[in-house]
Design goal:
Length: 126
Amino acid sequence: MTPQNPDKLFPLYITDDLERLRAFYVDRSGWTLSHQSPDYLQVQYRGGPELCFMTTRAAAPLPAYGGQGAVVSVPTPDCDALWEALQKAKLEPLTPPSDKPWGWRSFHIQDPCGVVLDYFHVIDDA
């Protein structure tokens, strides 16, 4: 059988803080570990979206992510319940859940690399 290329995005951020990111995502935020090596970390949320992180050594000559301007929208069954769970895990979301005019209820939290996660669920009365 010939291997197939995946048909989804794998956003990759270059950083040298893989252990802090692993702790944030896997130990405290409910993501699962897809792959880890000394220079690479890949995590997955609820069997769907994945994020990847690579050290500057492995990504050379590409520079490290500067920590501003990236928002990744992540679907979740209930953003209010997740917001409460993250607060109990001693993580501090940037915003509380709120309804958006495009039909989402969402909140934001920032990972140690600076990536803002926009956890959302679709609301009925959009």
